[in-house]
Specification:
mainly alpha, DNA-binding, homodimer
Chain lengths: ~200, ~200
DNA sequence: GACGGATTAGGACGTATGTCCTAATAACGA
DNA sequence: TCGTTATTAGGACATACGTCCTAATCCGTC
């Protein structure tokens, strides 16, 4: 049995607030207020704000890995798995419309703050990137796997940014459709190449 | 003759700092230090930080409009004009690698701050969007002009975000190449449709 | 050369925030 | 039951920041 500790509550609240308000704009008091504990208790668990950030990044890493594992288990086909990735834009559309992509906005903010945990945030991107690479490789795109992974990652980021700026949900759905069309095209091309070889 | 006033210097410095450090993370003292004036003088020109932000957004609107006008003048072909847009990613690659896209990162930050000037920042996107729409329409993509404009805008944003996260310049060049290929394909398709009609 | 508005300098003030300390309370093993 | 550790509460403290005020200085005009 896993008990939810106060520390877990803090990390969960910070995770949400960092996403919704940004890291710098979120204060100790904000988090403490959300968890309903005193600032003193807060300090017992985390000495500095940076420590909380690292804990949040760690939690997101775990979450993300779990999600990727789930997609891996849910489907045998690499194309379907990549489609799972593309569809998070729709699954999380409400939050994305309001706050953008959690990964992209965090890395962007930390870059401007020149924050020591920049690398940690980028790791979140790397997790998706590596996983997508594996899927594209399984799809038959051996040499281009990483290129394609970066491509679809970039398009997702762009959609999230503009969807947030314009608050446009139809735009998300349209772009998701186009990304899936693109994927089908890539999969077909890779498939025919495989045939040529044999 | 247009004399450069202190106010102009302040706006220029704030413009740079907001881009490099973010709006919230940039203090009055930062800007005053950059321009080498006292905080008191500062207050004479701008009563609040929000006022500076609005001035910066205004300056960026003017800059952007001037750039679009220039692209319009430089080339007769709408495809070339759109290529000019795509190539800002390469022209500004050094800054983009470090700080991302000035428009995207600002709108993202203001969204998290729930700042009153969000709409102003989005206007910057709208400027590009409308201009790109005009170009795509001139290219022969009448019905899809806005869709294509949003598409290429989103891809640029995504490239900027990931290029900043990974500090990868080759990635920028590769994606710019692919966007140009995509544009050529769109132009060709629109061209053949035009022929069908006649 | 004197006046008046425009501009600049420097500092005061209140607030918010990250950090830290100390005392009280809860949990738990001997 | 007692004592030790883990946890929580509340407040102190220094700093940074946005805002505001007042006095000094510049500069064009009469």
């Amino acid at each position: 049995m896993t008990t939810i500790t106060t520390r877990d509550h803090i990390v969960a609240a910070a995770n949400q607030l960092f996403y919704r308000q940004g890291y710098e704009h979120t204060s100790f008091a904000d988090i403490a207020g959300e968890v309903q504990i005193s600032r003193g208790n807060f300090y017992y668990h985390f000495k500095t704000k940076d420590e909380i950030l690292d804990a949040v990044i760690g939690a997101r890493m775990a979450e993300t890995q779990a999600m990727l594992d789930e997609w891996e288990a849910e489907s045998e086909s690499p194309a379907d798995r990549i489609r799972s990735f593309i569809h998070i834009l729709i699954a999380n559309r409400t939050d994305i419309k309001r706050f953008g992509c959690p990964v992209g906005t965090l890395t962007t903010e930390l870059a401007k703050l020149n924050h020591p945990s920049q690398a940690g945030a980028t790791e979140l991107f790397s997790l998706f990137r590596a996983w997508l690479s594996v899927q594209f490789r399984a799809l038959g795109c051996k040499k281009d796997a990483d290129r394609l992974a970066m491509h679809i990652l970039a398009r997702s980021q762009g959609v999230a940014t503009l969807a947030s700026a314009f608050g446009d949900e139809k735009f998300i759905r349209r772009e998701v459709g186009e990304m899936c069309d693109w994927l089908a095209w890539i999969a077909a091309a890779a498939g025919s190449e495989e045939q040529e070889k044999s």
